[in-house]
């Protein structure tokens, strides 16, 4: 049974790489095969699915769709740009703004919100928007690891390690991932200032975007506030965070129903939820549960321990830099979902706190996605926007920004995580 499970999982992963548009179908089909073959009993399959993470992802996506529709992100970007002296600082400001938004909003949604501003600026100045869009994309990926709701991988980590919203800021009395990521963001500013040192054209915004509704902004801030409050609740239900996110999304949609007397709003905004990603995760949860059932997760953990000769620093180093390499070419959601239980198994064998390995995994996998154009969904989205505007991005052009950005952020994160949680 173990070899059968491993073969199915291996074939599934190869298909996920070769057929990215079919990932959710492949994941669900493989999970169904695991259940059919008895590798995972159906009652256990439902238990292996982390419903709190699923509801958090769905609810956050729904709220973000309302937030984008309100045009608040566009207004904030306009305000920011109006205070910048030239293109160099506009790029830095847009990148930092994208990072700030991405700490609380999905990376792809962030790029979709801010990239049009960069396109408009480039048209006004008659310059290429390629470098600006790439900078926005990689900055969005960087900040995805900063908070609980910043990226799907963060939600997966929180579910595995039982972390709450505030744990990303301070964990066990030490600075958490948020501050580690911010150090990387500060270093990225240096990289961007050097790359755009010759872009000194001046720019002016003639008129600011008008916000159509402030209620989605209230919803987003309420979600963050309630997640923080829930962090301090003892013995709260496991599904609490997911309930908060979904409830606020439903409230927001129903508010539009009442305002416009159009009771199709909830259905309209539900369509904005990325059900393909959710289906992918559900299938992966079942597959990983199956590998756990047959003992494969434990075997992989033992292999890591043998390769490192029981040296925690060596294991940590392998996890970080292997994650950077893999995430440069593989979507980090299935990778992180697979590796989280492996790192837990490694920590168990070594009888150590798994935090340093968890954080190293997230730093490598999330930031490593900036290495290549296909390493993260935000990068693919940004390049897609450029293609629609008639601009083609080759791998070399992307990596001129992506590689120094990635190395500065990963190296600082690699060092800080070890200092704070490894020593």
Question: What key phrases describe this protein's structure?
Answer:
two-stranded antiparallel sheet, mainly alpha, 423 residues, cell membrane, globular, Diverse_Ion_Transporter, 2 strands, 20 helices
Characterization of this structure:
- Keywords: Cell membrane, Membrane, Transmembrane, Transmembrane helix, Transport.
- This is Putative tyrosine transporter P-protein.
- It is a multi-pass membrane protein.
- Residues 13-364 form the Citrate transporter-like domain.
- This protein has 423 residues and is mostly helical.
- The chain has one domain.
- The protein has helices spanning 2-18, 23-36, 42-48, 51-69, 72-82, 87-102, 107-125, 130-143, 152-161, 177-195, 215-231, 240-260, 265-270, 275-294, 296-308, 312-327, 332-350, 355-368, 377-388, 395-422; strands spanning 170-171, 174-175.
- A two-stranded antiparallel sheet has the order 1-2.
- The protein is globular, with a radius of gyration of 21 Å.
Short description, anyone?
The chain has 423 residues and is an all-alpha fold. The protein is built from 20 helices and two strands. The protein has helices at 2-18, 23-36, 42-48, 51-69, 72-82, 87-102, 107-125, 130-143, 152-161, 177-195, 215-231, 240-260, 265-270, 275-294, 296-308, 312-327, 332-350, 355-368, 377-388, 395-422; strands at 170-171, 174-175.
